[in-house]
Description:
Blueprint: H1 3-8, H2 17-23, H3 28-34, H4 87-100, E1 103-107, H5 110-121, E2 125-128, H6 133-146, E3 149-151, E4 164-168, H7 180-189, E5 193-197, E6 215-219, E7 233-237, H8 239-243, H9 246-257, H10 263-273, H11 276-298, E8 309-313, H12 319-324, H13 326-330, E9 338-343, H14 346-355, E10 360-361, E11 371-374, E12 386-390, H15 396-411
Parallel strand pairs: 2-3, 2-4, 4-5, 5-6, 10-11
Antiparallel strand pairs: 1-7, 6-7, 8-9, 9-12, 11-12
Helix pairs in contact: 3-4, 4-10, 5-6, 5-9, 14-15
Amino acid sequence: MSSESTTKMHPQFVASEDLAQVLSKMAMSTQAIHADDFVSSHRAIAPAMHVAVNYRYARDPDQLVPGENIDPNSPLEPFVYSRYSSPNNNRFEAVLKRIFHGGIMTYSTGLAAFHAIMVLLNPKRVFIGDGYHGVHGNIDVMTKLTGVQKLSLDELDKVGPGDIIHIETPLNPTGEARNLSYYSAKAHAVGAYLTVDSTFAPPPLQDPLQFGVDVVLHSGTKYIGGHSDMMCGILVVHPDRVAEGWIDTLYAERLVMGNVMGNLEGWLGLRSLRTLELRVKRQSDTAQQLVSWIHHELRDASSEVSRVVESIRHASLQEKNIQDGWLKRQMAGGFGPVFAIWLKTPDHAKRLPSKLHIFQHATSLGDVESLIEWRAMSDSTCDERLLRISCGVEDPQDLKWDLLQGFRALCE
């Protein structure tokens, strides 16, 4: 298929004009349920699961049009091959487009999505701070292929046209925030691009596009999926960049790189989007309750918490930034469901997860189950005293009890 014909196939569905106008005035929770009501040609409320890879062409030779496969019985679904588009993924992207307010492209994983950014922009330099080690590893691979340089955020005086400033906020593994308006001004003043990993704060917590971000990255495996059963990556492209053709280019490049999301993952993702707002708000509120409790207990040297815990970090504790105003504007919906604690010894950090009953000791985050990870298990660069905590949707008081009895068990 030519690049022209494949671009025409890209499924950036828009609902009927009336529905689009009505939905645009409604809340995120309503849009997440109804944005794809008219993407499918059938009337079933629950989306069907389509796992087909390929689709029959018309039997009538006069109806064969290269690059198209219109089915008169299903005019909204001109499918050919699932690497181009598929029913599940089209509906998933339709809802994402509505609630993320930008152009959408989905991928097999979050790292595949970041790799797509690197291929799209092909920068000479990437300015990046702390954050997910997988992204740093991906840049290292690209250095081998293209010679791209990786510089720190302390070297922004060197940033120039075509460079990328990549910010992760909230930050992995601490859940601390970074000022997007500041980095947006730095990037665009010199013709550089700002890309942001917003995995730790999906809607409704923050919308990086409002602060001039060019591309937002989400590991959809985390909060978008939310149930420990799917992997995907998502790019949200600023409308101005969509107008410049970025989505068309990303689509054409995804076709040949083959990093498309699976059909089953598209169906699971659509299922999960229906409850995204409910889950994330609950998880963020729970995290803030636990962080506030631990932070308060650390002020009392005789408390059971302070006997075990050395320190804690989370966006809600960035008091000066909250007072300055930028953090509250940026994270108007809440400060995020992930935080980190440092215990007094590596041995205590290694042992604490085994003392807990509700928190599951596993990597990743964003699930309905609360997770805790001795971070050294998956990131060798981390302090061995560090534990990353991802709040699920369990009762906050039960989670508090679980942590407290775990701290007590370490002291016995």
